[in-house]
Amino acid sequence: MKIAFIGGGNMAAALIAGLAGKLTAGANIHVVDPNPASLEKLARDYGVTVAGAAGAPVSAADVLVLAVKPQIMHEVTQQLLPLLQAAQQAGRTPLVLSIAAGIRAADLSRWLGGYAAIVRTMPNTPALIGMGVTGMVASSGVTEQQRDAADRILRAVGDTVWIDDESKIDAVTAVSGSGPAYVFYFIEAMQQAAEELGLTAEQGKQLAMATFTGAAQLAVQSADPVGVLREKVTSKGGTTYAALTSMEAQGVKAAIVTAVKAAAARGKELGEQLGAA
Ligand SMILES: NC(=O)C1=CN([C@@H]2O[C@H](COP(=O)(O)OP(=O)(O)OC[C@H]3O[C@@H](n4cnc5c(N)ncnc54)[C@H](OP(=O)(O)O)[C@@H]3O)[C@@H](O)[C@H]2O)C=CC1
Ligand SMILES: O=C(O)[C@@H]1CCC=N1
Questions:
Q1: Which PANTHER family match (predicted)?
Q2: Distance of alpha carbon 5 from alpha carbon 15, whole angstroms
Q3: Which residues pair with 160 in a beta bridge?
Q4: To 10 degrees, the CA torsion angle through 209, 8, 96, 139?
Q5: What is the domain class of 179-268 according to CATH?
Q6: Coil, strand or helix: which one is 65?
Q7: Fold entry, domain 3-167
Q8: Edge-to-edge strand order for the sheet containing 29-32?
């Protein structure tokens, strides 16, 4: 399978790390990005081919991954349009995978001259270590074979969750696309607290990291719902109770729910604003 990435930034690099040499040889992956330093690093680390602008290797690809910022997606599709037309004239309809937040498949299709084979996806950066999760939705012109190919690509870097209604991908974006940042934020807060309580930075890091990975794995492996696992840590009148009471009093859970909804609203807003182009 030949895969061309348009955009070789953070999320593309995380996907390439999971794909190159695993799902397909690095030499079958082509990356287009204007930054020579990023391209050099990707070529060195994963053996991918690279270019500063989209050209023949893009029209020869079976799959195009659109991995640029939503704000420049319209402009980038205009650069890709002749290359996709060339592929179609050669009798091929490459699968287009978009990973962009907000951008709706119908707008992408319109920008690409009515192009049909579009799967909209929302991956996340733990793909870098094969532990990503991707929400995906296929538009009606996607063949069963292309849907399988999309699933294989994203499953090479973690789990996939197919959704039937594209409007729900803003919720996926808010929960799991942006989600790693919330977890890192919480870890940062735990590390800060550890230091303020007199532990060294190294000790705080070790304790916070092990707690996160251990608790996450316990939540995955246990038959108990997370609420029950939480209760099992929380002795009445004890230390956890003191912390959770403080969090509830400060509205931490409500603030998190509101924040995640803000991310979903921003995804919707991006789609509406940028889709007007
Ligand atoms: N980061 C994340 O965790 C996630 C990101 N996404 C989505 O992935 C997409 C990329 O995000 P992210 O990787 O974070 O962003 P980055 O800015 O890290 O990567 C985008 C890359 O595209 C490059 N670029 C700009 N113009 C072009 C062009 N015409 N052709 C090819 N490449 C170009 C940029 O170069 P330059 O910097 O010079 O402009 C940059 O290197 C976004 O749409 C985002 O919504 C989805 C899920 C998670
Ligand atoms: O912050 C963003 O807009 C992108 C999409 C999900 C994660 N990063």
A1: PYRROLINE-5-CARBOXYLATE REDUCTASE (PTHR11645), PYRROLINE-5-CARBOXYLATE REDUCTASE 3 (PTHR11645:SF0)
A2: 10
A3: 134
A4: 40
A5: mainly alpha
A6: strand
A7: Rossmann fold (3.40.50)
A8: 49-51, 29-32, 3-6, 63-66, 95-98, 118-122, 132-138, 158-162
Return binding residues for NADP(+).
6-11, 67-70
Position in ligand 1 atom list of the atom nearest CA 73: 43
Residue 72 alpha carbon, nearest atom of ligand 1: 26
Cβ neighbours for 235, distance < 8 A, ≥ 6 positions apart: 241
Sign of CA dihedral 119, 124, 127, 128: positive
Whole-angstrom CA distances from 203 to 144, 184, 188, 225, 270 are 50, 17, 13, 30, 41
Cβ atoms < 10 Å from Cβ of 127: 26
Question: β-strands 3-6, 118-122: how paired?
Answer: unpaired
Work out which ligand 2 atom sits closest to the CA atom of 100. 5
Name the pairing type of β-strands 132-138 and 118-122.
Answer: antiparallel
Ligand 1 contact via 94 beta carbon (within 6 Å): no
Domain ranges of the chain: 3-167, 179-268
Q: How far is the CA of 91 from the centre of ligand 2 (A)?
A: 35
- Ligand whose nearest atom lies closest to the CA of 134: 1
CB 134 within 8 A of CB 122: yes
Reported as a pLDDT band with limits 50, 70 and 90, residue 16 is very high
End-to-end CA separation in angstroms for the chain: 32
**What is the value of ipTM here, to two decimals?**
0.99
Among protein residues, the one with the nearest Cα to ligand 1's atom 2 is 11
Residue 255, pLDDT score: 98
pTM (two decimals) = 0.96
Cβ distance 158 to 126 under 8 Å?
Answer: yes
